[in-house]
Amino acid sequence: MATHKNSQETVEKIVSAARRLFAKKGYANASLEDIAKLAGFTKGAIYHFFRSKESLLLAILVDMGERSIGQTARVMQSTNVCAFEKLLLFNRLQAEWAARNPDDLAILMWVSIESANQKSAVRAQVRSIYSRIEEVLESTLEKGKESGEFPGILQVKETVLWIIAIHDGNMLLWYRSGRDKNVGRNLAQASRQAMAYAVGVQDPHACVPAS
Question: What is the topology classification, in CATH, of domain 1-51?
Answer without folding.
Answer: Arc Repressor Mutant, subunit A (1.10.10)
